[in-house]
Amino acid sequence: MTSLSKLVENDAYEILLHPKVLRNYLLFIKEFKERPLVMKSHPIGVEIEMTNRCNLACIQCLRSQGLKPYKLGDIDPDNYKRILDQFPYVINISLNGFGEPMMYKHFFEIVAYTRKVRPWSKIGIYTNGILIDEEKAYHMMDCGLTELDISIDAAYPDTYKRVRRGGRLEVLHENIHRLVRIKKETHSKFPLIGVNFVMVNDNEGELVPFVEQAAEFGVDFINCITWAAYDWGFRNRRSRESYLRELEAAQKRINELGVRCKSFPEISDRWTDPRKPFSCNFYWGEEFRVTFNGDITLGCCTPFKETFNYGNLLSQDFSEIWNGEAYQTNRRLAKEHIAPNPVCASCDRFCKSFFDDQNHNDNGFVSMETLASSAKAVK
Fold first, then answer.
1. 152: how many CB neighbours lie within 10 A of its CB?
2. C-alpha distances in angstroms, 115 versus 10, 110, 313?
3. Which of 31, 55, 59, 139 is least surrounded, with the fewest CB atoms within 10 Å of its CB?
4. pTM summary value
């Protein structure tokens, strides 16, 4: 999607009244391509964690391993404001992290505040959707949220119980139908409602029926997401043939039904080629993730501040972190196609063994002690 089409879709014309935001955006795009060690621009997107508590224990999550990334908690509203203040030019704001945003009691208050002080920004969340009752559904339509992404990851109830432990697919489907109905009833343009399918071992063969269900819901879009090894040890056990066959069938069905898909994996296995050099945009601000207590971690699905912590926005200035030693060192390594840490070396952009070593018997578990001793990220 082009910058202009994003502007139109998100009704973000307010940005035209803020030349400093536009200047930063243009400088960021320039630097993002050039990849300097020291950035003059600010990130144009940020993910700020409201809470790391969750009502489910999904199979790909460390909670299913009985692990906890750090002390559970919620962001203090005043601390949220202090953090957001350090991103005056941000365009995309995700109110997510390693928890379920609907469990945060100040959620709607925070969305309204964010819309007020960053009127030009896209504000979105990912949610499991289980807690969105009728009252919350109505509030979603007028709180200032731009995009609501609901993670499903299954087409059938039994699979959902295995993949998203603690939830019921029947309840979720009812909640989605209600959201779509209320959006039509209130003639609301926002939030755009989408449903997500992450390909894991237990939902093999359910991507096509998921697409068909999404079409029946009448949601605004769908996302299909692949995955690789996480740093707590969750591993792929699908075959290369199964993976590609399912993507091809789903793409065909998407085209037949005219379903809008915002994110879909490349129907290829070339990204698993061990000869592919490491390359990641995170260190130049493609993803900027802040935990509920202000820590900056990797911009992917790794919550371990014990192994990856670039600083804290409640005790350090953003510029001190953004161009500090850790970021500059990791930018240099990334430019030299060297994975700065074990997680980067195993992600879906540089995964040498995604379809290999299918017979290992360790259940994919990696202890926190092993992670801490093997981490190579500069602290």
1. 25
2. 13, 9, 21
3. 55
4. 0.89
